[in-house]
Structure formats: C-alpha cells, structure tokens
User: What shape does this take?
Amino acid sequence: MIDPASNTLFVVSKSEGPSATFYQRLHALDLTTGNEKFGGPVNISASVVGAGYDSSGATVIFNARTHNQRPGLVLVNGVVYIT
Assistant: This one.
C-alpha cells in the first residue's frame, strides 16, 4: 500500500529465523531511498478470546508460521490495517 502523503510504501514480510522461529513484520519504506521509516520494521502480533484452531486457555494467538496476510493493506486515518 502506498501513502502518497508521506511518500511511504507499506509491505508485510514473512521470514524464518533460527530454530524454525517465524516472523511477520510490517515495513514502512521510503519510496525515494528504500530505507525503513518510523523506526520499523514492526513485528506483527495479536490475540483474541476464543476456542478456535491454535487456541490455548481460551485465547487464539496470531501464529506467524501458519497465518498469512493475503487480501492487502489499507491506511485509514493514519492507521495501517492488515487483514
């Protein structure tokens, strides 16, 4: 997603670290230089009360290995939403 007001490209990356540790990160890249902006990247994490797949103690926690960001990103009132 591109924010023309701040000249920023927002993207999500998925990577694997040592010992099969998975990460998903939100990057804010300067369109001119390609450098990270706003102190990024930021690790993506979330949890919700529920008893679904991957739940533990009535909480479903975002799993960077199995959950994927597919539809896209949107910027609304200065907040980037990842679906």
Remarks:
- The beta strands are 2-3, 8-16, 22-30, 42-43, 47-49, 55-56, 59-61, 73-76, 79-82.
